[in-house]
Design goal:
UDP-N-acetylmuramoyl-L-alanine:D-glutamate ligase; nine-stranded mixed sheet; four-stranded mixed sheet; 11 helices
Length: 314
């Protein structure tokens, strides 16, 4: 890979259909899945990206494949080998917040060549739910060994992930292979009941990640740089919330995008720079993430902002 070629990103994880029931009882289906949304978000921000997923060639799977093609996200070979395409049934309350019930099957197709990627991202169901979860965690460790940087979003789903202590053990295995970890304050509350946020992110930083970011909804995000131990809270833009579907995934895409653009993700040299980075060096990427997340909650479904939407300072 030459220095002028942007690093290609592999996103590993579920693509599915979100069947969203709003407060009035109306149901609308959107193509989604947390990792797929991250892939769409990265593609919308002009990053080359492939998706390793598990969908069928049924009507919903064909719809997902068409959206991937339309968004410029390439499916890796074997991604369309499932018996049925998974569905997430999301119910919105009067504030637009979503709760989920899932009908899913998750396996990981064989990835032909991890060395083709400068960065690998995964999260949510894919890294925890078997039979695919163990393969995903192994792929993260293998990607890191080949020199790719790794990002991970636990995106906890209590209705699927069993007891918090069991989920935490698997999630911490994935964290140990990651350079960047993004999670929500709700994830921390569920996985680490009674523990202080600062203590949790310091302990997880010691497992290997150079950067940890905790989102707090409308309150913004908390950022910790492992190299310096610095912790900083950043505010979120003020927006009118339509719904929160895909907001965390849009934040994740914005974060990875900002770090790729800054040369802090995308290969072994980028990893070295990230491992030495201060808070000041990573804040612009987190600010991009806050903007992409805010733009998403202003629209129904998992909207993926483009660079022209960000209005970033030059």
């Amino acid at each position: 890979m030459s220095s002028t070629t942007p690093p290609r990103t592999l996103v590993i994880g579920e693509a599915l259909v979100d069947a969203v029931t709003d407060a009035s009882g109306a149901v609308v289906e959107h193509v989604g899945g947390s990792p797929a949304n991250v892939a769409f978000g990265l593609a919308a921000l002009d990053h080359p990206v492939d998706l390793a997923t598990w969908i069928a060639t049924d009507e919903r799977g064909s719809r997902i494949e068409a959206v991937c093609r339309e968004r410029g996200v390439a499916l890796t070979p074997g991604s369309q080998s499932a018996e049925f395409t998974s569905v997430a049934h999301a119910t919105l309350d009067a504030t637009g917040a979503a709760t989920y019930v899932f009908d899913l099957d998750w396996q990981l197709p064989t990835i032909p060549d991890l060395t083709a990627y400068g960065h690998v991202h995964t999260g949510s169901i894919a890294a925890v739910i078997e039979p695919g979860g163990a393969d995903v965690r192994a792929a993260l460790a293998a990607a890191r060994a080949t020199g790719a940087t790794v990002s991970y979003d636990p995106n906890a789903r209590p209705s699927l992930m069993g007891a918090p202590a069991d989920a935490r053990r698997l999630i911490e295995e994935a964290i140990a292979s990651a350079d960047v970890v993004k999670l929500s304050d709700e994830d921390v509350d569920w996985l680490c009941p009674g523990e202080q946020l600062d203590d949790v992110i310091a302990a997880w930083g010691a497992l290997g990640p150079a950067l940890l970011v905790v989102t707090r909804g409308g309150a913004g995000a908390v950022v910790r740089a492992t190299a310096t131990g610095e912790v900083q809270a950043l505010p979120a833009p003020r927006v009118e919330v339509i719904d929160t579907v895909g907001a965390g995934d849009s934040f994740m895409a914005g974060l990875v995008s900002g770090l790729l653009d800054a040369g802090l993700l995308g290969g072994p040299e980028a990893r070295e720079r990230l491992q030495a980075a201060s808070i000041a060096e990573v804040v612009p990427a987190v600010q991009r993430a806050l903007r992409t997340g805010a733009l998403t909650v202003e629209r129904a479904g998992a909207h993926a902002p483009q660079r022209a939407d960000l209005a970033e300072p030059a």
